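Objective 1b. Sequence-to-structure analysis of Reticulon-like protein.
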Amino acid sequence: MAEDQKSEVSETVESVIEKCKNLPAAQDASPEPPPDHRLFGRKKSVHQLLGGGEVADILVWKRPILSAGILGGMSVVYIVFEWLGCPVLSLLSTGALILVGALFLWSNIATFVKRSPLDIPMPRNISEEKALHAAKVVRDDVNLVLDMLHDVVQGKDVKLFLKVELALWILAIIGKWADFLTLVYLCVLLLLTVPLLLERHEDKVEHTLRRGYEQTRQLHTKLHDQVLAKLPQRLASREQKKSV
């Protein structure tokens, strides 16, 4: 009898385990998909997506001294200007005044003390080719923004209008929470932490992003089918009623 009871208990436990494996939560915890089936079809690493150059090395902390120096310098600037309340213009002007005066005096005194003046690298004149290239890039970006604003104002693209409104609303909320210096510091902090997090914990972040992307795509599909797709019909019906 005891052996029969043990066998029945073991069978019950195994059946419960099998049912638990079929639950959605257990299915979400399944192994990660292979790298060639990642979100947006991405096959490159974070370092490669960032360009693989010196900037990418800094963002993923492959040059830890320089990355830490940039983060520490920005933290010092933020503390001095934001927490201590030092005026930015006055502090920058005073620092430039002292620096330029010290360099000027050293350049004139160096001849008397038989020392060579400091060889400070200064930027040369910008070539016409570089200036034209920069102007072309700026012109293309400005024209793209103007075309987008024209489509929004004329009411030609409902989706673009909603995206612009959402972006402006988010910027307005962020502007109430923080000033410009705080936003710059937060951007630098995110640039020096998010790529590092993605590089070292890529599998977990990829799984979370995939789930969020799927849920967002489902919500977008419902919004398009139930709201956006019906807007042109309603507008057309209203115009017909007005014409009648």
